[in-house]
Design brief:
A two-stranded antiparallel ribbon has the order 1-2. It is mostly helical. It contains 19 helices and two strands. It starts with a helix and ends in a 5-residue tail after the last helix. The chain folds into three domains: about 15-205, MFS general substrate transporter like domains (Growth Hormone, Chain: A); about 215-270; about 275-490, MFS general substrate transporter like domains (Growth Hormone, Chain: A, Up-down Bundle).
């Protein structure tokens, strides 16, 4: 019996490249992930030009962003599981090709409908790439110190890419046209595909259950799509409107159906036993709360710089550079060492505490504020906090799962960040809007009311970050998780 069981179960195996080539392969993954992260924010600066060129209204223009967010958030979990079943590199390449072709369609769009549909396809490709990239990285690096170092670099790419997107979007739109914020993905995507074929090792999928849980895939994808749709349109439709509440109710019912299917099906899309892993569950709760706080910082501080201080899009991008540099230094140079020495809990709690302090500084930024006095200190604290915290939250989520389920765990983590960011941004933007309206109705000037709304939203974001730090401090396992991962041998 024992021999038969051994022959039947084929775990996911990576044919690891030579030691020096692993870092080249990792660079390819970072380039692919950066391309996806950039596309979330690079379009924001070009929205006015897109509206003028294609005749979008203020309401319909939001779909240039929302179409991407909808499919991206809805397909992350499915993308991760496809990687587990059919091989991470194979699925990674398909996602890259789809994203690149959709980017070409976006850049050549001549109508509103074509652009929105192409953006939706971009989101699907981006979700697939994002969901399996982390799994490929975890399989490349099995030694704890190297894995922690790689996590730090990967965390910086994910956290800092959004800021770079704003700057790059401003440069391309000003120097060329809005078409190039999409067309630039085509040669970059082609390069990543070639480098992937050259450097990334092949992966054998989970051959024990070589089929997809279609019922689970349909219900969870539909539930996520409806939930993201309700969230991103919550401000426009009204949070208590029948449409918003109805969509959220349907999403909740579909999610309940999904859980029922997963509890009964032979080969579930998302084995519910994964949520008995304490670190994975805790890291996802932390990810939701932290993403809400970080989205508040990134988007609301960009609005503060543009609308209150009068910065140009280029100046906004440059204003984020100090935070990016600090984030790089701490995520690459320090965070990995902190995780190896203290485990996950202490670096995560300290990093999120510093991020909360940075948001509190933004919550008092005045009209006519100085960059050095009123913007830079908060930026630096947020850069330090993000640089320290991103590594431990990802490692905590991924290190306790088996290699054959790493793609699924990656999809769950990314979905948590995506849903937390979308929900947090919508809620905090609603808070800012309500506060601004209240101040305007009480007789305050436009800029005073606008800044007051941002202050309250930044404070709420600081509360999210503080709560995330508390959850991590209380429930995240510390150093024992790393020790257990080191001691456990990998089956050949």
């Amino acid at each position: 019996m024992k021999d038969n069981a051994t022959e039947t179960v084929t775990p996911q195996i990576i044919a690891a490249p030579p030691h020096d080539h692993r870092w080249l392969a990792f660079g390819v993954l970072c380039l692919g992930a950066l391309m996806i992260v950039l596309d979330v924010t690079i379009v924001n600066v070009a929205l006015p030009s897109i509206r003028e060129a294609l005749g979008f209204s203020e309401t319909s223009l939001a779909w240039v962003v929302n179409a991407y967010l909808l499919t991206f958030g809805g397909c992350l979990l499915l993308g991760g599981r496809l990687g587990d079943l059919y091989g991470h590199r194979h699925v990674f390449l398909i996602g890259l090709a789809g994203f690149s072709l959709a980017s070409l369609a976006c850049g050549l769009s001549y109508s509103q409908g074509l652009l929105v549909v192409a953006r939706a396809v971009q989101g699907i490709g981006g979700a697939v790439v994002d969901a399996v990239a982390l799994s490929l990285m975890m399989n490349l690096f099995t030694e704890p110190a190297e894995r922690a170092k790689a996590m730090g670099v990967f965390g910086f790419v994910c956290a800092g890419g959004g800021s770079v997107g704003v700057l790059l979007g401003g440069v391309l739109t000003a120097a060329l046209s809005w078409h190039w914020i999409f067309l630039v993905n085509v040669p970059v995507g082609a390069l990543v595909i070639v480098l992937t074929l050259r450097w990334l090792p092949g992966v054998r999928g989970d051959t024990l259950h070589k089929h997809l849980d279609l019922g689970g895939a349909v219900t969870i994808t539909a539930a996520l799509l409806l939930a993201v749709y309700a969230v991103v349109n919550g401000n426009a439709a009204g949070w208590t409107s029948a449409r918003t509440l109805g969509l959220l109710a349907v999403a909740l019912v579909l999610f309940a159906v999904f859980l029922s299917i997963e509890a009964r099906v032979r080969a579930p899309l998302m084995p519910l036993k994964l949520f008995r892993l304490r670190n994975l569950s805790t890291a996802n709760v932390v990810g939701v709360l932290w993403a809400a706080a970080m989205f508040a910082w990134f988007f609301l501080s960009a609005l503060y710089l543009q609308l209150v201080l009068g910065y140009t899009p280029m100046q906004v991008g440059l204003a984020f550079l100090p935070a990016n540099v600090i984030m790089a230094v701490f995520s690459v140079g320090l965070s990995a060492r902190l995780v190896m020495r203290f485990g996950y809990r202490l670096p995560l709690t300290a990093g999120l505490g510093l991020a909360a302090a940075g948001l509190l500084l933004f919550a008092r930024a005045p009209l006519g504020g100085s960059f050095v006095i009123d913007v830079l200190p908060g930026m630096l604290l947020l850069g330090i906090g993000a640089g320290i915290a991103f590594n431990p939250v990802l490692m905590a989520a991924m290190n306790d799962v088996a290699p054959s389920e790493s793609g699924l765990a990656s999809g769950i983590v990314n979905t948590a960040f995506m849903m937390g960011g979308a929900l947090g941004l919508a809620v905090l933007a609603s808070i800012a809007s309500a506060r601004t309206s209240a101040l305007l109705s009480s007789g305050h000037a436009q800029l005073v009311a606008l800044n007051g709304g941002y202050h309250l939203a930044f404070f709420a974001g600081a509360c999210f970050a503080t709560l995330a730090a508390a959850v991590g401090a209380i429930w995240l396992r510390g150093r024992s998780a790393i020790t257990a991962q080191v001691a456990e041998p990998v089956e050949p």
